Amino acid sequence: MFVDCGRRSHQNQGVSRVRRSRKGEVAILAAREASCNLSLGELPLTYNEIANSRVKRYARQEVKLMADIANPQPTVIRTSRGLSIAGRRLTLYSIMDYLQAGWPPHLVRDEFNLTDNQMADVLSYIETHRDEVEQEYQAVLQHAEETRQYWEERTRERRKHIAQTPPKPGQEEIRARLQAAKARLGMV
Fold it and tell me: Scanning 8, 47, 63, 171, which has the fewest C-beta atoms within 10 Å of its C-beta?
């Protein structure tokens, strides 16, 4: 059985993984800052025993629970883009757009391909930090509206500039046919 208690890179610290060795045994690799609290005696089940349907259900649950306990990662984290779901490029503000539009949580979960635990954690975080999240959400909406108005103005100016630009030499006939087609369609 292989148990590695060595230090990992900053991305993998605190992450536990289950890996099969050549003999089919389960090895739990726990990345710890200082020392490893696991001993070989705490890992009695082999991969074959876990996969075997004759092993009691509680034994499989214990292995699962041990992995969950060894990896207590928060679901909602703060990134440079704001509040996000850990390991995803998805912000809470995107989820809140759907919730504000009246979507039920299970459809939002399916839309963004989230797990039940992730969705429950997001809803819990929003409820616990309601004022802070609402304030940030309003700031994000305001910024999005300002950005939209800026680009609409730029587009309007660009279209006006293009309309005032004289046709290139040799394209007068093409432009005349285009204007005639627009007139037939009522676009002018």
Answer: 171
Q: What are the contacts of 122-131 at 24+ separation with CB within 8 A? A: 122/75, 122/76, 122/85, 122/92, 122/95, 125/75, 125/76, 125/83, 125/92, 126/92, 126/96, 126/99
Helices of type H across 32-171: 47-51, 57-70, 92-100, 105-111, 116-128, 130-164
pLDDT, tens digit (0-9, with 9 covering 90-100), for 116-164? 999 999 999 999 999 999 999 999 999 999 999 999 999 999 999 988 8
Q: In terms of DSSP H, where are the helices of 101-129?
A: 105-111, 116-128
The token pair at 187 is 């676009």
pLDDT in tens, 1-46: 444 444 444 444 444 444 444 444 444 433 333 344 444 444 455 5
Distance of CA 165 to the CA centre of its chain: 45
CA–CA distance, 122 with 55 (Å, rounded to integer): 35
Q: Considering just the CA atoms, what is the radius of gyration of the chain in Å? A: 29
Model pLDDT, residue 153: 97
Question: Is a pLDDT exceeding 80 seen at residue 59?
Answer: no
Q: Does the model's pTM come out above 0.85?
A: no
CA proximity to 2, closest of 14, 18, 10, 11: 18
